[in-house]
Each structure stands twice: as structure tokens, then as C-alpha cells.
Design brief:
The structure holds 2 protein chains of 2 kinds. By secondary structure, chain A is of the alpha/beta class. Chain A contains 12 helices and 14 strands. In chain B, helix 2 runs parallel beside helix 11, helix 7 runs parallel beside helix 10 and helix 9 crosses helix 10. The chains are: A alpha/beta, B alpha/beta.
């Protein structure tokens, strides 16, 4: 096993009754990385994070976090991690300062040290003029900065963030991600779950979860490069009609209208630009087809596609990416 | 108004109700409990009041009188005394509610009829016992004397501890128990559930805080609040209603402290059952009802059937009521009433014990 890894999980599984929320997930997160969890709602992101924090015992599997065996050594781990929950979980009826003072005491930070640390964080996260404001009366972005300040107060080596930007406007999201990279630069390992593609793209490395299974794992660029499909951009007068014409065709993985253009994700062996254009012409659509660059959304769509017929292609994505990373 | 819209709301409400298992259970549970409590347990006729007899005459007629009174079933004779000193002790310790005192010149008094032939010494700290005494005192003594007629000798009721029979003297100490039960159980149960309901708990359990630091930390402020409430009720009782505190004030606070702990333990236990603050409130109410009704605060403990008395013995309020009435009104000491303290301590330990196992489970 890799001693340098911040997180190492093998065969991680969690069942809730009949439901398998997390299914045999292998995971390795290197130190000082921003590692992303990308997946639709209910794909097991939160459950995985809770198990890695030691809040939830796995039904099966082996977890090592910061060299500690989890959940057996979870109490030791708690001093070294920060955890920001999906829902704002500080006290809405305490002020910003009261919340942070409370957390500092809970984390056993010496009083004098806590004061300077809190001042420092209030400045860094633009909360200085909000000290006396009740947390419940702040905006989504402010609450989220406060939650981040609370999670990093004790300078954790490892930070878990569960969909931290789901209730925040785009500007605040950008600022928030800047803060995350600042922390990563200072040596903090960050595991963040999201369902925003632009956020996933910014991670050093990414795991895509679908229905509890890890369906792809790698650096965003590697994942795009390893995509076993080709992206075609179809420019035509009637994109809806073109979409209908291609919908049920073999070898077509995904279709999405982007503005006036139709984005086609297709198996490279089944289609090329000529055969696409021909097929469309036969359906009465005059179209220009050109090659597009695969992006993370294509990877995501390919990896989380429901029909079993593409399962082979999906696992190829994972294997390819892992190979490239090694 | 659209009937369809109205109906859809009714339907939605019923569906939500069906899924809220606890509320659903309460809809059935509360009336059932009330019916059983009021129907069986609450009996305004007093029977089987613990009593003692101090028969200083010891004649055939005095023994007949005692037998007659016992046959009325209002009292159950527990002790036969030989000296007046024993009477004070038994009464203060709360072991008897009534003592029949037959003076040495009983026969004389009966014949002359100028002075009451029998004294009924009554524990005035309990209103219920006072009523029972009046019932007994109405017993026709004339029947005893067979052929000798025309002479009237009555029974004299001596009201210990509350000679003027003022209601506040009886109710105010008991009210301390009612108020503590209400606030301690409900507030703690709700405060603990609130943490979970608002999602603070998930953040907290990822920190070094242990579940017991959290529980204890949340519960401790209520101990202080409870003691403030005790002070408030006792002080107002003294100032406005002139309710006496005959025993040691320190011992009253000690008893109250143990009762507060028992109530908090119950609250913590309830919080492990409830998933929302609303459910916590319902559960607190569910335990509040029998405490008020069975503890002896509103209805006579002596009149309840055996099963209800057993249930009452489990409830902390029953024991606290005996403690505070004993200490405040009868001047008893904790040493006299140690068994009630033991009962409260056992209740607290059991409740906390159950809660401990449940708290650690809930956090997984």
C-alpha cells in the first residue's frame, strides 16, 4: 500500500437494508491534492465521504486515512480532518464569532491561539465585518465561507467537502474554489464532491460515481483523452429533427443540443463524419458535421450511461485513465 | 372553494399522518391512556389509607371502635402504638396518614359526652388524607354504646402540619414537582433532538466531541434552570401564600436536584426515541400525563388499584412529591425518607443506562 496516500480504500461497500449505496469502491487520494467526487444525486458520494470520515461504518472493505485504520481509529482521525456538510450545519442562532469560538473550544485549540486563528480566518474569508451577525441571517455565500472557516479552524491535514457549492451563486463558487486551491497549496488534501462539471474540471484528480460504483477515476484531462468515443458537432437547421433521426441508432452514445448545434457522442468504429452526414441527409436534414473536443461532460455521460450495452466501454474508460496515470 | 382542492389537502394530510408513526401511535395512545387512568386509577373515594392506632384505654369498646373503623376500609391499620412519641415519628416519616388516638379516659368521655371521645390525627400535608379523615369522623359513634342512648360523643380531627387546612400549603410544594417535570423532560428532549434535526449533529460528530460531552453539556444548563424554578416557586409560595418550609432547605434542594436529574435522564431517553422536535414534545406530554395523575398530586394515591400504584412507584414525580411534602410540610429529614431518594436514583440510573446504549447507536 502507498504510505504517502492520504486516503486509501479497498472494496468499500455500504448497504442500507437492500440498497447498496456504495458498491466495492477502490480509491486512492494522494496528499495535497484536490480530489473530486463527481456523480449524480444518490450515487453514493455523501455515504462514501461519511465512511471515510469515520462517521459511518462500512458494511465491507478496508479504509486507511492519514495512516489510520478507519473506523477503528476514527476518534484519532477526527482531530486531523475537517468536514463540511452538505447542509449548513453551524448554529444559525449564534453569531459568526460565537460559532467559531465554539468550534475552537470543541477542537481543543488553546484560547490565545484560537483568537489569532479566528481573526486570521475572518479576514481571509471576508467575514470581518460580520463578526456580530447571526449566522442564520447571512447569504448562502457568506454561510459557506463561515462553514469553511469552521472546518479549517484546527488546520486539518485533510478536508472533506460534501457538495459545498450547491447553494451558492457562480461568483461565490469561483472565490470558494480559489480558497480551496490556497489550502491545497499549503499542503491540505481536499476531497470535494460536486455535480458541477466546471468544478470537477478544476480538480487535480477525479472519481466518477454512479449508483454506488466507481465508474471512472483519473485526472480530468486524462479522462477526456481516454474517452473511447468521438465527439461530433452537427450544424444544421433542424437540430431537434436531427436528434430524433439519430436517437435509436447503434453506436450513438449520447446526444445533446447546445444552442443551434447538436453534440453527438459516438463509437469511433461505428460512425464517421460522412456516415453521420449521410444518415442525416437520408432523414431529410442537411447537416455539416465536424469533429469536436471531448470534455468532462462527455466523460460523465459516457460513464454514467444506463444501458448495460456500454458497460464494456465504461470500464475501458476507467482502465485507460488509470493506465495513463500510472 | 373547490372541493377537489380541499379533498386533496385532506388526503395529503392523512398520508403524511400515516407515515408519522409516532403521531399515529399517539392518536391512539393518548386517549387509551387517559381513559384507563381516569377510569381505573383515579378514584376520588379514598380506601386503604395507611393508619396506626394509639389505644390508651384498651377496653372492649375501644377495641370495637377500632375494628369498626378498620372495617370501613377507609383505613388499613398498619401499626399499634404504645406511646405518643411514636405517633410523631411515623407521621413525619410519612408512613401513616391517619392515627386514631383513644385517650385513657375513653369510657368516661363516652359516658359524659362532654368532650370528644376519640382523636383522629391526620397528615395535613396531603389534602386527600384530610378528606378521608372527615369521612371517618362522620362515623356514628353512638352505635357503639348499645343500650345507652341519648349521649353524644364525637370524634375530633386534629390536623397536623396544616391546621387551618389552607389549600396552597398542600399544592405549592407539589407544584414544584409539576413544573420541574414539565420543563425538564420536555426542554431536554427537544433541545437534544433539535441538534439532530437541524443537521448540527453531523458536523459535531466529525469533531473530537464525544456523544456524552454533547449530551451532558446540553443537559447541564437545565439543572441550573431547574434549581432557579424551585427557588422561584418556593419563594413565591412563602411570600404570597405563606407556605412554610419546616424541614431543611438544603435537603429540599438536594431532593430537587435528584428529581431534576431523574427528569433530565427521562428527557435524554425520550430524545433518543424522537426524530423531530414535535415528536419529542409529544413523547414528553405522554409521560407528563401519568406523572400528574398518578403521583398523588391531583388524585389520591391510596384510592388507586394495585396496578396503578405500581406504575406510580415507577414515576419519579411520585417519589419527589413524597419528599418535598415530607421535608417542607412535615419537617421530615432525608434520612426519614431515604427510600424515596433511592427510588429516584435508581430511576435516573436505569434511564441514563438505556439512553447511553441508544445514543451511541444513533450516531453510527
Amino acid at each position: 500500500m502507498n504510505a504517502e496516500a492520504a486516503i486509501q480504500a479497498r472494496g468499500l461497500t455500504r448497504r442500507f437494508g437492500d440498497l447498496v449505496a456504495v458498491d466495492n469502491v477502490d480509491l486512492t487520494v494522494a496528499r495535497s491534492q484536490v480530489y473530486g467526487f463527481l456523480g449524480p444525486n444518490g450515487s453514493g458520494k455523501s455515504t462514501t465521504i461519511r465512511m471515510l470520515c469515520g462517521l459511518l461504518s462500512p458494511s465491507a472493505g478496508d479504509i486507511q486515512v492519514l495512516g489510520l485504520q478507519i473506523p477503528q481509529q476514527a476518534e484519532q482521525l477526527k482531530r486531523r480532518i475537517g468536514y463540511m456538510t452538505q447542509k449548513f450545519s453551524l448554529y444559525e442562532d449564534l453569531t459568526v464569532l460565537e460559532n467559531l469560538e465554539f468550534l475552537a473550544a470543541v477542537q481543543d485549540i488553546p484560547r490565545a491561539q484560537a483568537r489569532t486563528r479566528i481573526d486570521d480566518l475572518l479576514t481571509r474569508y471576508w467575514l470581518n465585518d460580520r463578526r456580530k451577525q447571526l449566522a442564520g441571517t447571512m447569504s448562502g455565500g457568506q454561510k459557506q465561507r463561515l462553514a469553511l472557516a469552521g472546518a479549517v479552524l484546527h488546520q486539518p491535514e485533510l478536508l472533506f467537502l460534501d457538495e459545498p457549492t450547491s447553494a451558492v451563486d457562480p461568483q461565490s463558487r469561483r472565490e470558494f474554489w480559489d480558497s480551496l486551491f490556497e489550502l491545497a497549496d499549503a499542503g491540505t488534501t481536499i476531497l470535494v464532491s460536486t455535480h458541477y462539471m466546471d468544478e470537477a474540471e478544476r480538480c487535480h484528480r477525479l472519481a466518477i460515481l454512479d449508483q454506488g460504483r466507481l465508474v471512472a477515476d483519473g485526472a480530468p484531462r486524462e479522462l477526456c483523452a481516454a474517452l473511447p468515443y468521438v465527439v461530433w458537432l452537427v450544424d444544421c437547421a433542424a437540430p431537434r429533427r436531427a436528434q430524433r433521426a439519430l436517437q435509436q441508432q447503434a453506436g450513438i452514445v449520447a446526444l445533446a443540443q447546445i444552442g443551434a448545434e447538436l453534440r453527438v457522442l459516438a463509437a469511433s468504429t461505428a460512425w464517421d463524419s460522412d456516415s453521420l452526414a449521410q444518415h442525416l441527409r437520408a432523414a431529410g436534414v442537411d447537416a455539416q458535421v465536424r469533429r469536436g473536443e471531448p470534455n468532462l461532460e462527455d466523460v460523465f455521460v459516457a460513464a454514467t450511461r444506463k444501458p448495460a450495452s456500454v458497460a464494456a466501454g465504461t470500464s475501458a474508460t476507467g482502465a485507460g485513465a488509470t493506465g495513463a496515470a500510472a | 372553494m373547490s372541493l377537489r382542492r380541499l379533498f386533496s389537502i385532506v388526503l395529503k394530510e392523512l398520508r403524511q399522518l400515516r407515515r408519522d408513526r409516532l403521531t399515529f401511535a399517539m392518536i391512539v395512545g393518548i386517549p387509551t391512556m387517559q381513559l384507563l387512568l381516569f377510569g381505573f386509577a383515579i378514584n376520588l373515594d379514598i380506601r386503604h389509607l395507611d393508619a396506626a392506632v394509639l389505644d390508651q384505654a384498651n377496653t372492649a369498646r375501644s377495641r370495637e371502635l377500632v375494628a369498626e373503623l378498620a372495617a370501613s376500609q377507609v383505613i388499613t391499620l398498619r401499626h399499634a402504638l404504645s406511646a405518643p412519641q411514636q405517633l410523631d415519628d411515623l407521621m413525619r416519616e410519612g408512613r401513616v396518614g391517619v392515627v386514631i388516638v383513644i385517650p385513657a379516659d375513653f369510657e368516661n368521655r363516652l359516658e359524659r359526652g362532654d368532650r370528644p371521645a376519640v382523636q383522629l390525627v391526620v397528615d395535613g400535608s396531603d389534602q386527600v388524607v384530610q378528606q378521608a379523615a372527615r369521612q371517618l369522623a362522620a362515623y356514628p359513634l353512638a352505635r357503639l354504646r348499645g343500650s345507652e342512648t341519648g349521649l353524644i360523643a364525637g370524634m375530633e380531627v386534629v390536623n397536623f402540619y396544616n391546621p387551618e387546612r389552607r389549600a396552597p400549603v398542600n399544592t405549592v410544594p407539589g407544584l414544584v414537582g409539576v413544573i420541574l417535570t414539565m420543563t425538564m423532560v420536555m426542554f431536554t428532549a427537544m433541545a437534544l433532538v433539535r441538534e439532530r434535526e437541524r443537521g448540527n449533529l453531523e458536523m459535531l460528530i466529525a469533531t473530537p466531541v464525544s456523544p456524552w460531552e454533547l449530551t451532558l453539556g446540553k443537559v447541564l444548563p437545565f439543572v441550573g434552570i431547574g434549581l432557579v424554578q424551585v427557588t422561584l416557586v418556593l419563594a413565591l409560595g412563602k411570600l404570597i401564600f405563606d407556605v412554610p418550609v419546616r424541614g431543611s432547605l438544603l435537603e429540599i434542594y438536594l431532593a430537587a436536584l435528584l428529581f431534576i436529574i431523574a427528569s433530565l435522564a427521562l428527557g435524554v431517553f425520550l430524545s433518543t426515541l424522537a426524530r423531530s422536535q414535535f415528536q419529542a414534545m409529544q413523547l414528553a406530554f405522554f409521560t407528563f400525563l401519568p406523572q400528574i395523575l398518578l403521583s398523588g398530586f391531583m388524585f389520591p394515591y391510596a384510592g388507586m388499584p394495585r396496578a396503578a400504584q405500581w406504575l406510580a412507584e415507577i414515576l419519579p414525580m411520585t417519589h419527589f412529591l413524597r419528599l418535598i411534602r415530607g421535608i417542607a410540610l412535615r419537617g421530615a429529614t432525608l434520612a426519614d425518607l431515604w427510600i424515596e431518594m433511592v427510588a429516584l436514583a435508581v430511576f435516573s440510573a436505569v434511564m441514563l443506562g438505556i439512553a447511553v446504549t441508544r445514543v451511541s447507536k444513533r450516531l453510527d
